[in-house]
Design brief:
The chain contains 8 helices and no strands. By secondary structure, it is mainly alpha-helical. It has one domain. α1 runs antiparallel to α3, α3 packs antiparallel against α4 and α6 packs antiparallel against α7. It is globular, with a radius of gyration of 17 Å.
């Protein structure tokens, strides 16, 4: 039970981190977007995804503790939103199709940077969120052969974050998923949130 309480708290923290990053874009606060000048920024799609997943993780923890009837509805809906967003972005990148971000996000614009500059998430980011979304779906399904999959996916996502931080530490761009001309690097603050997100999923999923 304590592990799931920790997981719920982690979910709230991850959601707060995503909300702060979104505010950084909407209010054009560089210290929030990039932490330090010259560092990779957390893209708006990434911030939105952390916000959604943090809420999802909190619901997963409550679902495991059987404390929320709403969770059985909220988890699949939030997971589907996250999966559709990241899968569509990944597909567009793979086939080199251009998504018009101006049309997709204009209604959410605020004074500040051009929306076109909000950018595409890194390859590691998209893979990580797809795994987290799948974890959310599997949490509410009684599939015996896949009951450990959310834990495995969570551990994989935490490893993605850890590898990115290691890459920054030893200056190896491939570890933080930088692909010149195709994908930006996974930002270091996004990597930290991935470690939290994956760990939270592992804690929520253990002991089923």
């Amino acid at each position: 039970m304590k592990k799931r309480n920790i997981s719920e708290a982690i979910g709230m923290l991850v959601s707060l981190g995503g909300a702060l990053a979104m505010a950084g874009w909407l209010l054009d606060i560089e210290a929030v977007k990039s932490i330090r000048p010259g560092w990779e920024s957390m893209k708006l799609f990434t911030a939105l995804s952390f916000f959604l997943y943090g809420i999802t993780l909190s619901f997963i923890a409550r679902f495991r503790k059987k404390e929320s009837q709403l969770a059985i509805i909220a988890i699949p809906i939030l997971s589907m939103m996250l999966l559709l967003l990241m899968a569509s972005l990944l597909a567009s990148a793979v086939i080199s199709a251009r998504i018009d971000s101006n049309e997709m996000l204009m209604r959410f614009s605020a004074p500040g940077p051009a929306i076109a500059d909000w950018g595409m998430p890194s390859l590691g980011t998209m893979i990580g969120f797809i795994l987290l979304a799948l974890s959310g779906f599997l949490t509410t399904m009684n599939i015996r052969s896949l009951h450990r999959a959310p834990v495995v996916f969570g551990a994989t996502v935490a490893a993605i974050g850890a590898l990115a931080i290691l890459g920054y530490g030893i200056d190896r761009s491939w570890l933080y998923f930088a692909v010149p001309g195709k994908f930006d690097a996974l930002p270091i603050h996004a990597a930290m949130l991935f470690i939290l997100s994956g760990t939270g999923m592992v804690l929520a999923g253990r002991g089923r």
